[in-house]
Amino acid sequence: MPYAEEEDTRKVQTAVIGRAESDWPVFLPYDHDDFDRFMRGRTRDDFYCGILLGGCGKKLSPKRYTDKKCHFAHRPPVHCRRTEIGEDSADHLYIGRAVADWLKQQGQRAVQPVYKPRGHQVRDVVDVSYEAGRRFIRVQLARRSKREWEEADAKLRVRHSQLDWFFGPDSLLANWQVERQGYALRVQCRSLGTMRTVEIGTQFPDRPVEWSSLSECTLTPEGIVTPSLLRTPSGIVPRHAAPAEPAPGPPGLRLAPASVLITDAVLSHATDTHRWFDVSVRVNARLSLPAQADSPDVHQAYLPVGATLSLDGVGTWLIEAGALQRIRTDAADRPTDSADLSPDTYSPSPEERPLPPDAAVVASFRKTLENTARSKNVVTTATLGKGASLHGHTLSVDRWRELLLRVEQPRTPGKPVLSALITGRDGGPAPFFREILHGLGWTKSFSDAELLDIWNRERGRVHEAYSSSPANPSFLPRQEDRRGPLGRVSVKRTDSAAERRAALDALLDLADEARQARDLDTCEQVLSLAERAALSTDTHEALRIHTDWLVDQRASELLKTWERLAALIDVMNRDGDDFHPDQLRRALRNAEELAEEVGDDLAAEERRDIARWQRHLERMAERLTLSQIRGHAVAVRVALRQAAREGRTTTWGDLALRIGAPLAALNPDDKIAVLVEVDRETPDDRPLLAALVTAHGGDRPHPLYQQVLFNLDRIAPSPEALFMHWRMALRRHSELR
After folding, report:
1. Contacts with 202 (C-beta within 8 Å, 6 or more apart), sequence order
2. To bridge 293 with a disulfide, which of 143, 289, 516, 582 should be the other Cys (CB 3.0-4.6 Å)?
3. Tens digit of each residue's pLDDT (9 = 90 or more) over 78-132
């Protein structure tokens, strides 16, 4: 594809707004009337050729035309290598944002979309994690083999307790998912005015895909339920295959007073009149309370007031109560027969004893954390509270943050975060760890994955600091720094080594900070200066620890880069013959950049593969680019629609004469690609326009017709049934004239 130096002739239809790294996509409609509506509230400086679109990050200018399609254009000079520029080129961003927003509407927090996961290119997949990474949605957009998909599925299920797959319009993997679980979830985008809307499809065997909006779907513990699916006690099943619902049962069973003990409750959903909670009693059940009632605390036990018990439509016990009465926490550990649950036995808990003074709590927290650090262990909030004699009090997140920030004082350069020793219920960081970091001056807004990395790193630093010298951790001021002004002055006059030691200490503190920020370049520069100020063996040892860490990090970076290069070469060696020239050119460009980072010695074997594929690319010079394929598809689509209206078939030679392009001489794979683009937007209930392209003589389908059906996820008949399938398609065209 040529790239003009002073003028951009490509018709770019998508951009991102705000900044080059944004994931907020926009689609510029073709019509000039829609253009005016699109630009309301926007300026011509709002649009970028987004990095997540595979673009250059430079600004784009919206162009309005009345005689041709409106589009974006780069501002000269143009040096952009972006190849995907059509209306669907930002669909991965639309899908990622739509799925993330939907999860938040379903009550999920810590939702994190990733558009270029490690080992993948932009537009290959979109990953969306939630529940602190425990649950995961992968949107598979690029084509992959069954083996690759199964390997990826196995790896993801090891790391995540729940995994859901969405498959893009071009993915054939949905067929394998249908075979495995009885259905598959598809995803597609459609243009609606100035927007691209996201739709979710449910694919069943031998049935057309049933499409719906994301807002009609529901997230359940078992997975995603679309309008075409049904959640049952035995799992998620196709709605059309589910047994008929039983007739309504008798009215709700009236519960005897104090016959149920509720010990745990999690908000499920809310309506205008009630809130619904998933609760744990002697059986799993759901609790319904009036909207004005107080919410239950997960750390307390309750008796329901005015309760009835019934079964809902999916077989879950439903408790409807007017209110909850709190009882003593230790009641949950007692037998649960009716005598033990009487109100006389379990009256509401007495007034809680007062908390110890803050200073005593802070001192206890610090002592417990330091002892934990010396034993290279971790601690829970319950253990901290017990050691501080909190008597079962439940502290809020803000209260934990306030007390632990006092524990972290005084702050000195290089001091690790002691609160990193506190674990949450899931074994990861405590829920207030992020707030503590911000309170200590960490201004960056980091993702859940970055927070977990910081927590692991700080925990290791705390263990290292206290285990190396338990009586005087490495981050505390050294003895010579604690002397009064007079002592420092007298030493300064008699021994200049103190100045060198002070300079070395300052450099070591800077090295600690660079390690904490993982700034390898700064750490390397600081260590170079520190080596000149080193005085003795012990200072050399301190430098060696930093240097070893730096060498390990550099080696790790180099290894990761080489692994990325090796993985990319493996993909090219396995699938390169099926790549279009643009795809192969892009892969080779990425491989060249990675090989440059790794160096010729380590990448010698990969360099040979790169050279071999470069030669292969030169031999493919006469193949069409993706943009040329789409250009031919526009003209062929017009010609085939005309043929359909006239009730006739055509051939590649006839099409070449009509549109003035050498179509008959194209590579067969390029012909297939053109026909796939022609019928990409053809509705599922209409015959393909490609059926009108026949072999010479017009009495049988073109040999490529079956491959076009397969690539468009249409049912591809067996060779014996292909002729009849083709004749039925022609008959359907004649009926639609």
Report:
1. 183, 184, 185, 186, 209, 210, 212, 226, 227, 228, 229, 238
2. 289
3. 788 888 888 888 999 999 999 998 998 888 877 888 988 887 888 889 999 988 7
**Domain ranges within the chain, ordered by starting residue:** 91-241, 253-333, 358-468, 479-535, 556-619, 626-736
d(CA 679, CA 656): 18
Q: What is the dihedral of CA 605, 609, 610, 611, to 10 degrees?
A: 100
Q: How far is CA 276 from CA 218, 248, 296, 395, 584, in A?
A: 15, 21, 11, 25, 54
The contacts of residue 317 (CB under 8 Å, 6+ apart) are 283, 284, 285, 286, 309, 310, 311
- Candidates 705, 673, 661, 634; CA nearest to 11 is 634
Of the CA atoms within 13 Å of residue 119, those in its CB half-sphere come to: 8
Pick the CATH number of 253-333 from 3.40.50, 2.60.40, 3.30.110, 2.40.50: 2.40.50
Please give the residue that has the higher pLDDT: either 96 or 535: 96
**What does the chain come to in residues?**
737
Contact at 8 Å (CB) between 183 and 229? yes
Stretch 397-410: mean pLDDT: 85
CA distance 623 to 466: 65
Cα dihedral 41/47/50/56 (nearest 10): 180
- Report the C-alpha gap between 268 and 231 in whole angstroms: 15
Report helix, strand or coil for 505. helix
One-letter identity of residue 77? P
Round to whole Å and give the CA distance between 110 and 481: 44
Task: Tell me the residue type at 187.
Answer: V
Q: What is the pLDDT of residue 108?
A: 86
Contact 401, 443 (CB under 8 A): no
For residues 685 and 265, give the distance between their C-alpha atoms in angstroms, rounded to a whole number: 48
CA separation for the pair 625, 83 (Å, rounded): 9
CA distance 229 to 231: 7
Residue type, 655: L
Instruction: State pLDDT tens for residues 331-389.
Output: 344 444 433 444 333 343 434 456 778 888 888 898 889 888 887 888 888 888 888 88
Reply yes or no on whether the pLDDT at 280 is more than 70: no
**Do residues 651 and 704 make contact, with C-beta atoms less than 8 angstroms apart?**
no
